[in-house]
């Protein structure tokens, strides 16, 4: 099993997640306004959350 | 109308179902057919993270801060990304060393320290009491709220009715009973509770379903979809701020970040999370699936939090309904009786799951890391007796005490706080474990003193900045303690330490406690040096090395050891444990025992049996660790030197061989130069005569020139053959192997050798077989061999009466060629010599050498290269037969006519 590569990808994804849910990225979406009728910030946070989950699944499931 | 008894019966039925599930799972586990051996069950059991704090409190926090409720779930999501890496390592270590709690983990890491484990236990118990009390508060509040159905009456103060009239007390006792039933029915060395895990997984499903049901009801029943809620919230001044709230009333980016960090620590180090994620994990592969399933669960349970919060704020007049109860109050306000009951059951699920697992985990810690060491100190456990049942009683007592502590906190301090604030206080306490834990996993130089100082410092700051102020708010301490600092010292105000204010309480407390904790841990660790036991554990934890079993010790008191194990594990398991190989028996026994009573206590107990009069157990341990380390190094050195010796031997052998080859080469070179010198000498002699005597008669001159020419040819032939041989021997010769008919090659060779035979008056006769004899060979090389053999036969046959016979055939599955002459024959002594280089038999004094002495060696080489052999049969005076064989072409050998050819073999010998 190619442990090192999986670990590297997960670590990068973790850091990416920290950036996505931290300042200043969060501040960029912290505005009044709506997307599909929903507040921008919530659409962004839940969208990024979903994307993160999908990426983790893609990484860990590849070798199942 | 929802009567109190309906709720009670529904709750009882639900808890009964849970217990049935747990009982069934335990039965299946005993039968070896686990129901929890699934990544889904594992991921759902991690959902115990979502307590009633999530179920009711998230909405409350969202109503206050908008997105501020989310970091508590984003932190675990981020940690889940690294689940395989971090939890995978914790799991491997914990399972290898039978670690059953977070206190045990930290204690074991720093040299199996009992005091450190006890410290962690104290912090965990003190830190988690508010958290447990918040579950009690949630259940009791929701129960009181629901009994007033359909009116929504905020329960003002549960304490009004006195202790015996307080629902929370009964809830607490019920939960304690459940925790005992699920987690402390019997002692288990691995501390696994499959039934409990199955029940927790079911509870995760129930609370998720209930919460989503409310969410869908609010979004699509009460309002016209999510966008409708958003639009109406944006239009309402009370809720507008919540839609883009950071740095608004909802909090700061720093607060957001600290909450994320806090919840990262919580998901890893909360005792109940450690229990389900590490201790109860049955298969490491489940970690992979959990790393995306668990965040998905968190996402699902959070999607409707904000819609419900906004819906509640829009629906109820401000200030009439506590936002913490929106989840229940909204269905009630709409007269959704069944949904309201389902919500209550969902909240009950969230609370019971948390309390059961948390108290089971904490009671394990209290028993193994406080009660047993104390009992050991006072000599209660050494004297035998019903130890297993004593342990079980201690554990059950611990569960009841912990739950009652939670109740006491609820009773005295709980009303001052919203659910989330209470939960965060506990999170901040648990976060104090992070430096010692993560440092212990990834940093080799952490010391016991460093870990202890860091934990103490962090815990002290936590007490001062979070717990004491919560007491002050509840009236236990004067309110001035918070507002003006103790004794009016402003620099010591617990919410603005050293004048650093303007932060929310959690951010403030986390900043100072982490600074103290990490600072002390690192500084004290670096100032000192880990002792031998800690270093040994660092090798096991940080490098994940299985440190070699300690070297042979004096004979173990096996009977005493087995008796000790039997007291805690039962006779059957003890006997099993004693079957471990003798070298690691002590470690094995200790690990087994550690499962039941914690690693520090196990060490002392085993130490009490394996006593060394001269040295204390500690000294022996550290000595052994040093010794085993030295021995490991010694072993490595020994191995290296053995390897070196082997290499030296190989080198010597190679050197011998080289010397031999060198001698052979010298031999060869001197022979070759001798052979070359002979023709050269004669060429030079005749050339000199020709040069010195120009008046030489023309016919003499012509004869000499003819000799020179002949000798030159011989020389050229010799050199060609030497080169040829060298090429074949070195393996650089090119071989063009193809399938060819041996009979055909023989007749070709006879045609070209015929001239020489005719010249000497020798008759050549071929006896070919019928049909082709196909072999795989290089045609030119084969021709070379045949010409050499035929040429020799002709040369050694008597002139005039010579008779050479060449036979071709198949014998024993090999193609065979024989060349027979009627010459003088070769003495048996010389049969081997003629194949040596430059050896020509016969009387060299009388006979002029007739060849180069390389023909036969080359021919034999060629035949052997082609997979056959070449030899001679001869008697002096009776001629000689040189033969060679070649393997038949595989395809040809399969053909049916081989037999016919074998029969056709002429009976020559």
Keywords:
heterodimer, A: 64 residues, mainly alpha, two-stranded antiparallel sheet, 3 helices, 70% helix, 6% strand, elongated, B: 909 residues, five-stranded mixed beta sheet, two-stranded antiparallel ribbon, 35 helices, 5% strand
Residues in helix, % of chain B:
55-70%
Instruction: State the oligomer.
Output: heterodimer
Molecular shape of chain A: elongated
Q: How many structural domains does the protein architecture of chain A include?
A: 1
Instruction: Write out the strand line-up for the largest beta sheet of chain A, numbering strands in chain order.
Output: 1-2
Unreliable spans of chain B are 547-554, 612-616, 843-849, 896-904
Number of H/I helices of chain B = 35
SS content category of chain B: mainly alpha
Separation of termini of chain A?
10 Å
Mean pLDDT of chain B: 79
- How many individual helices of chain A? 3
Count of beta strands of chain B: 7
Radius of gyration of chain B: 48 Å
What's the mean pLDDT score of chain A? 83
Q: Give the termini distance of chain B in whole angstroms.
A: 121 Å
- Beta-strand content of chain B: under 5%
Structure commentary:
The complex is a heterodimer of chains A (64) and B (909). Chain A has 64 residues and is mostly helical. Chain A has one domain (3-63). Helices cover 70% and strands 6% of the residues of chain A. Chain A contains 3 helices and 2 strands; from the N terminus they run ααββα. Chain A has helices at 3-20, 25-29, 40-61, and strands spanning 34-35, 38-39. In chain A, α1 runs antiparallel to α3. The longest helix of chain A is centred in the C-terminal third of the chain and has 22 residues, at 40-61. Chain A is elongated, with a radius of gyration of 15 Å. The termini of chain A are close together. Chain B has 909 residues and is mostly helical. Chain B is 66% helix and 5% strand. Chain B contains 35 helices and 7 strands. In chain B, the strands form 2 sheets. A 5-stranded mixed β-sheet of chain B has the order 2-4-5-7-6. In chain B, a hairpin with a 5-residue loop joins β6 and β7. In chain B, α5 (83-96) packs across α14, α8 packs antiparallel against α18 and α27 crosses α28. The longest helix of chain B is centred in the C-terminal third of the chain and has 76 residues, at 617-692. Chain B is elongated, with a radius of gyration of 48 Å. At the A-B interface, α1, β2 and α3 of A face α4, α10, α12 and α14 of B.
């Amino acid at each position: 099993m190619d442990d090192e590569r999986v670990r590297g990808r997960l670590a990068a994804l973790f850091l990416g997640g920290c950036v996505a849910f931290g300042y200043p990225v969060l501040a960029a979406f912290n505005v009044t306004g709506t997307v599909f009728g929903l507040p921008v910030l919530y659409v962004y946070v839940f969208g990024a959350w979903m994307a993160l989950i999908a990426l983790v699944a893609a990484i860990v499931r590849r070798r199942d | 109308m929802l009567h109190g008894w309906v709720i009670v019966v529904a709750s009882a039925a639900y808890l009964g179902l849970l217990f049935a599930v747990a009982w069934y799972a335990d039965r299946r586990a005993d039968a070896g057919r686990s129901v929890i051996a699934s990544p889904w069950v594992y991921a759902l059991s991690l959902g115990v993270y979502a307590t009633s704090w999530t179920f009711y409190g998230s909405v409350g926090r969202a109503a206050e801060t908008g997105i501020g409720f989310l970091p508590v779930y984003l932190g675990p999501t981020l940690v889940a990304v690294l689940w395989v890496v971090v939890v995978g390592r914790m799991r491997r270590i914990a399972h290898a060393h039978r670690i059953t709690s977070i206190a045990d983990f930290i204690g074991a890491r720093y040299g199996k320290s009992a005091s450190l484990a006890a410290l962690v236990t104290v912090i965990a118990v003190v830190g988690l009491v508010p958290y447990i009390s918040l579950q009690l508060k949630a259940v009791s509040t929701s129960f009181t709220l629901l009994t007033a159905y359909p009116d929504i009456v905020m329960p003002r103060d549960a304490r009004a009715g006195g202790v015996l009239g307080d629902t929370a007390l009964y809830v607490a006792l019920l939960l304690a009973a459940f925790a005992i039933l699920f987690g402390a029915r019997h002692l288990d060395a691995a501390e696994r509770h499959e039934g409990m895990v199955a029940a927790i997984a079911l509870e995760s499903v129930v609370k998720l379903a209930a919460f989503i049901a409310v969410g869908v009801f609010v979004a699509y029943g009460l309002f016209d979809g999510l966008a409708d809620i958003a639009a109406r919230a944006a239009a309402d001044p009370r809720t507008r701020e919540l839609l883009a709230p950071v740095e608004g009333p909802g909090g700061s980016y720093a607060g957001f970040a600290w909450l994320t960090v806090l919840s990262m620590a919580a998901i890893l180090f909360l005792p109940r999370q450690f229990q389900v994620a590490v201790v109860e994990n049955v298969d490491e592969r489940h970690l992979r699936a959990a790393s995306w399933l668990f965040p998905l669960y968190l996402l699902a349970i959070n999607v409707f939090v904000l819609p419900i919060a906004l819906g509640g704020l829009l629906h109820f007049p401000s200030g009439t309904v506590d936002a913490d109860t929106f989840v229940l109050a909204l269905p009630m306000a709409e007269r959704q009786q069944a949904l309201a009951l389902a919500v209550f059951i969902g909240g009950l699920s969230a609370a019971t799951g948390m309390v059961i697992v948390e108290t089971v985990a904490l009671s394990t810690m209290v028993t193994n890391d406080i009660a047993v060491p104390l009992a050991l100190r006072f000599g209660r456990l050494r004297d035998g007796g019903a130890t297993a049942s004593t342990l079980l009683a201690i554990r059950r007592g611990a569960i009841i005490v912990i739950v009652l502590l939670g109740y006491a906190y609820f009773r005295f301090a709980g009303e001052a706080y919203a659910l989330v604030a209470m939960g965060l206080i506990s999170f901040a306490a648990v976060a104090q474990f992070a430096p010692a834990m993560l440092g212990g996993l990834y940093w080799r130089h952490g010391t016991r003193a460093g870990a202890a100082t860091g934990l103490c410092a962090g815990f002290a700051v936590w007490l001062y900045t979070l717990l004491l102020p919560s007491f002050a708010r509840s009236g236990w301490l004067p309110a001035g303690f918070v507002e003006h600092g103790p004794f009016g010292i402003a620099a010591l105000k617990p919410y603005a330490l050293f004048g650093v204010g303007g932060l929310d309480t959690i951010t403030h407390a986390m900043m100072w406690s982490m600074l103290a904790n990490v600072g002390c841990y690192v500084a004290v660790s670096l100032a000192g040096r880990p002792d031998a036991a800690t270093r040994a554990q660092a090798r096991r934890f940080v490098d994940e090395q299985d440190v070699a079993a300690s070297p042979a010790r004096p004979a173990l008191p096996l009977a005493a050891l087995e008796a000790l194990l039997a007291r805690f594990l039962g006779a059957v398991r003890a006997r099993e444990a004693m079957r471990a190989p003798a070298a690691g028996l002590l470690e094995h026994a200790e690990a087994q025992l550690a499962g039941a009573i914690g690693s520090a206590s196990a060490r002392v107990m085993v130490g009490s049996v394996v006593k060394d009069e001269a040295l204390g157990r500690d000294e022996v341990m550290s000595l052994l660790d040093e010794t085993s380390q030295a021995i490991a190094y010694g072993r490595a050195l020994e191995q290296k030197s053995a390897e070196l010796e082997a290499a030296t031997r190989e080198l010597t052998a190679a050197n011998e061989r080289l010397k031999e080859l060198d001698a052979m080469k010298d031999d060869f070179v001197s022979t070759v130069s001798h052979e070359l010198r002979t023709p050269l000498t004669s060429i030079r002699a005749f050339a000199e005569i020709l040069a010195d005597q120009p008046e030489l008669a023309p016919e003499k001159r012509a004869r000499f020139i003819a000799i020179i020419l002949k000798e030159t040819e011989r020389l050229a032939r010799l050199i060609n053959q030497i080169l040829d041989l060298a090429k074949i021997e070195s393996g650089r010769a090119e071989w063009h192997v193809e399938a060819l008919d041996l009979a055909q090659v023989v007749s070709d060779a006879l045609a070209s050798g015929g001239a020489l035979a005719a010249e000497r008056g020798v008759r050549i006769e071929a006896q070919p077989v019928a049909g082709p004899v196909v072999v795989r060979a290089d045609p030119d090389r084969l021709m070379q061999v045949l010409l050499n053999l035929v040429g020799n036969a002709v040369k050694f046959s008597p002139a005039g009466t010579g008779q050479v016979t060449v036979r071709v055939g198949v014998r024993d599955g090999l193609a065979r060629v024989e060349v027979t002459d009627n010459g003088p024959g070769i003495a048996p002594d010389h049969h081997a010599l003629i194949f040596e280089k430059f050896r020509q038999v016969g009387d060299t004094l009388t006979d002029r050498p007739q060849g180069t002495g390389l023909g036969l060696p080359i021919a034999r080489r060629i035949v052997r290269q082609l997979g056959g052999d070449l030899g001679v049969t001869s008697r002096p005076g009776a001629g000689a037969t040189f033969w060679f064989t070649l393997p038949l072409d595989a395809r040809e050998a399969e053909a049916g006519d081989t037999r016919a050819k074998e029969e056709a073999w002429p009976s020559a010998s």
